[in-house]
Design a protein that fits this description.
Structural class: alpha/beta
Number of strands: 8
Shape: globular
Strand content: 35-45%
CATH class of the largest domain: Alpha Beta
Protein name: VOC family protein
CATH architecture of the largest domain: 2-Layer Sandwich
Strand order of the largest sheet: 1-4-3-2
Number of helices: 2
Domain PhnB-like: 7-132
Distance between the termini: 37 Å
CATH topology of the largest domain: Signal recognition particle alu RNA binding heterodimer, srp9/1
Radius of gyration: 17 Å
Organism: Actinospica durhamensis
Helix content: 10-25%
Number of domains: 2
Pfam families: 3-dmu-9_3-mt
């Protein structure tokens, strides 16, 4: 018998100064998207004043968290972990691919790869990797 738990798992994105811009960009691209909560570092730190201490946002009903790390680090996002989006139609896939790819990096151009009708993989200008899929 499984006991109910209050445990919740949420995708957490760590930026170095771009969290607010990334969050606003993502919310602008998806339906049912909103910034749920955001708090900023004040003058007393430890992060740069005005950067994101902690934020929660939702895309298509899925919640994400993000921060601007107060500590510099030698790592960033990797395509080994990506956000997978089931697109409603080809127009949506192309729109998202173009927007997310602007200033980013193409990992797989939109096309038919045998495992879906249409698929594209792109790393956005913030370094976050997105797989865009048209099922069927």
């Amino acid at each position: 018998m499984r006991i109910a738990s209050s445990q919740k798992i949420t995708t957490f994105l760590m930026f170095e100064g771009d969290a607010e811009a990334a969050m606003a960009f993502y919310v602008s691209l998806f339906d049912d998207a909103e910034v749920v909560a955001v708090s900023h570092y004040g003058a007393d730190g430890p992060g740069v004043e005005g950067t994101v201490r902690q934020a929660t946002f939702a895309l298509a009903g899925q919640q994400f968290m993000c921060i601007d790390s107060p500590a510099p680090h030698a790592f960033t996002f990797t395509p080994a972990v990506s956000l997978f989006v089931q697109c409603a139609d080809e127009a949506e896939l192309e729109r998202l691919y173009a927007a997310l790819g602007e200033g980013g990096k193409e990992l797989m151009a939109p096309g038919e790869y045998g495992f879906s009708r249409r698929f594209g993989w792109v790393q956005d200008r913030f370094g976050v990797s997105w797989q865009l899929n048209l099922p069927g």
